[in-house]
Write the structure tokens for this entry.
Amino acid sequence: MRMVNRRRFLQVIGAGGAAVVLKSMIPANQLQLLAPRTASSAVSTGPEKKFGMVVDVGACIGCRQCVYSCKEENNVPDSPDQLAWIDVFEMDIKHPVTEIHAVPPDYSTTNYTDSPKPGKWYLSKNCFHCENPNCVKVCPVGATFKAEDGIVEMDYDRCIGCRYCMSACPYNARTFNWKEPDPPENPNPEVPLRPAGVVEKCTFCVHRTREGKLPKCVEACPVGARHFGDLNDPESPVRRILNSEFSFRLMDEMNTSPMLYYISSGKKWLPDQEASEDTH
Amino acid sequence: MEMKDDVRYLLKPLTFTGRRFYAFIAALVGVIGLAGYAWYVQLTQGLGVTGMNDTTIWGLYISNFIFFIGISHAGIAISAAVRLASLDKYKPIMRMAEALTLASLLMAALSIVLDLGRPDRSVFLLTYFLERVGQSPLLWDITAVATYLVLSVTYLYFSLREDMAILKDEVGSWRGKLYTFLLPWYEEGEEETISRVAWWMAICILPIMVMVHTTVAWIFSLLPNRPLWFGAAAGPYFIVAAVSSGIATVIVIAVVLRYLFGWEEYIKPEVIKGLTNFMAITSLVYMYFMFAEHMTARFAAPAPEVRVSNAWFFGEFSLLFWGMFIFGIFIPTFALIINAIRSKEVNIKLSVAASVTIVLALWIKRVLIIVPTQTRPLMPMDYGLYIPTWVEWSLVAGTFAAAALIYTLFLKIFPIVEISEELH
């Protein structure tokens, strides 16, 4: 009799206590636990915008001005294995574009000099700020998150450096600070300097684009191969281009829905136009 | 209950401490010291002192983590066999297996912390837990492992209570005080209730054990961009490896302790035989999974899969793979099977040799799971290169030494055999 009473007492206390604890752990304004985190740093320009980029691989001459200007703008240092937020691949035109993720290294390289070369095209890649980003899904602390205006942001103060997001990105778009980065010569004060042990990637120059400016890589491209804008705005350059040009994205089957599209309409800067038509 | 003299020999670890013990501890502390220095280097200079890079972002620490989670499954597997299937002949090794679970789960957690870029922010895994647990497989894994650890420790504690009550006057004054401290609310005759509780706990821990290794597998197998990671078979595949390597480790521990303390009569050859046969069967099942995995990756698979499978079979990982498979899994397993068919007696030396090679092979196999896939990214990049550095090897050795240290200290503080069972 004594034991039953004690057990009942403990059950009631336990159930009541658990209910109180569970209820208190759920913040009042966040009962939908699966909602992605909203921006905490640069204030999002709101859900009406959907930032996207278009890169014209027909126009790209592989000069890498986008790469270097991005590095300067975003304080990306020259440490080993952390060369840039943008990678440019020199691809062999004999192989179809959709063969990209079946391409062994001998069809492509990032270590080219002298471009453009006949018979080659140039594929630049940075974070695609996907609509359905796997990196955001897997982050255990919410250090990367999809803002309402479409930018997939990084919170360097939360990142614990587990690198799960790097594992999840089908495009290898992210880089990690394997050591304390050397401070840049002329740091851009608008972009935070990162410590060792955190992941970083292209931010669509969030400090510029939310002020109505273009990302640095778009500005820096000497042949106008890069375009940026609000995909929801019918007047934006990206929306007008995508409404009229053939476009493709990398590895759409990954279901991440990238917000960087490729077109191939620009005139290729080639000395020998005939040679390039022969190789198709 | 009174201590009977004829079971006093089971208390040898608690009553006798020889020179070999101190030498062993000194060796372990030496290795841990080296690992400590390696960790200092890593913390001050960053993870760049390892062989990892932006292409191969996970290496030995993560494969070590999977390995330790794997061998932790032995504890509940054997406890479940005894309590739920009434396979009483394994009672003598129950606690040895449970102590292994404790040591290896702690080392699994440590392996993850070693891999973090910002280990000082580890607590964020708790801070943002509720916000992210709905989406991140890493947090599902942490939930499962934490639950498993708490339940295993509780289970171990319950089974220790009766032994501590019996032994508190027999094993020296500081242990006696410790046991008394650890025995609040002890009542004579509580064993029956404890036994029922433990039975129910064993039932609950089994599905948690399954979910532990499944959530570990899901960290990798839910990512569509990773050939040979992505797929539904990863959960069962990992679990079979876990049970194989766990049983193998228990065999080695049981035979070593048997020899060291003269427990040949207590841990009878039939126990080793049963464990060995079970390990041989799970090893066969593992080979079946390996065959299915590479059949899938080669028959008509997409190019990325074929490329990773080729990396295993013919590429820079082929020596490791074929060596591990032929000498570490295939030959030992069939040697055990042939011996079991030809002879009713277990060959203990063969069992230990096969167990050691199987554990080594499965440690290497975890590296083969993690590394080759990352070296063949889907983007048109160069293949990644991964060569672990002295920092990684030291820290991995450190986790093994720390596991051995935890286990040895447990051996010295608590009875590694169920004394109360012997006295019944």
User: Anything to note?
Assistant: The radius of gyration of chain A is 23 Å.
